[in-house]
Structures are given as C-alpha cells and as structure tokens.
Design brief:
By secondary structure, this protein is of the alpha+beta class. The chain has two domains: 92 residues, no CATH class; 55 residues. 56% of the residues lie in helices and 16% in strands. The strands form two sheets. Strands 4-1-6 form a three-stranded antiparallel beta sheet. Helix 3 crosses helix 5. The chain is globular and about 50 Å long.
Length: 160
C-alpha cells in the first residue's frame, strides 16, 4: 500500500467511525470519551461546534442536535458503568465547554483562533491538528474558517 492509498484508507476508517458515532448519538446513547487517552470528539451543532475531551460525556440529551463529528487523536469511547461515572462525565463535559468559552471571551478573532490552535497543538501535537479542518476550529471559537487558515499560515511561515 503506497502513501496515497494509506491516507485514503485512514480517511475511510475515520468516515466509518464518524457515521457509527452519529448513529449512536442519534439513538440517544450516553457514552464518554476515554479519560486514559489523549483523544476527543468535535461535535458539530447547528450553529457552533463543541469539543468533548477525555472523560467527557457525549450523547444522551446533550447531543441530539449534532449533525457531524470529528474524532481527534485515537478516539476511544466507553459506556459509563454507573450513576457516579455518568455524573462525573457530565461534569467533565461542562469543564471542556468552559475551557472553550474562556478562549472565546477574547474579542479579537485572530487571537481566539490562535488560542484554540495553541491549545490543541499543545495537547495533541501538530500532526493531529493539521488533520482537523479550519471549519471545526472556527465553529468552536466563533470565527470565520478563513481566520483559522490565516493564523495557521502565519504560524507555518514563522516556523521556517
């Protein structure tokens, strides 16, 4: 398998994984992101996107309005075993939402874009965030996809 075939294979696997997750979320299943791995899920809502990181609850009534998901890292989802695990997962989801909200408090769009890119790169690494579309980051912090693209472009040229 050459490099091009490998990329296509990975893309198809991610697409199938996303479809399976959307099916579970649409059926009202409650899952949680594995807290023992650097992974997460970008959840597209009608007018914004949310990130559910390690330990966060996904599904149930939280995500009935989602229409697209993007796995981040080597995504691993678990089913909470008991009420205590469910409650903890709900609280962790709120913490991830609060973290993203702190990034959106900045009134300057380019700074919001830079902050979300920095957060993801520090946590997941440059290779992982390079695979995430500009649109996903833009929807998380309320900027245009072109703003994310511009900030990525500037960062790449500063590294050279």
């Amino acid at each position: 398998m050459n490099d091009e075939d490998s990329v296509l294979h990975q893309s198809l696997q991610a697409e199938n994984q996303s479809d399976a997750i959307l099916t579970k979320l649409g059926a009202g299943h409650l899952l949680m992101v594995n807290s023992r791995k650097r992974n997460g899920l970008i959840i597209y809502k009608p007018y914004h996107a949310e990130f559910a990181g390690p330990g966060a609850a996904i599904g149930s009534y939280f995500d009935t309005d989602c229409h697209k998901v993007i796995p981040v890292g080597d995504l691993s989802l678990l089913t909470p075993d008991n009420q205590e695990e469910r409650q903890k997962a709900y609280l962790i989801r709120r913490q991830w939402i609060r973290l993203t909200h702190q990034l959106t408090d900045n009134p300057a769009p380019t700074q919001r874009a830079q902050m979300i890119l920095n957060q993801f790169e520090n946590y997941f690494g440059a290779e992982v965030i390079a695979q995430i579309p500009d649109e996903a980051f833009a929807l998380m912090v309320g900027v245009l996809p072109q703003t994310i693209s511009l900030v990525r472009y500037r960062v790449e040229h500063l590294k050279r």
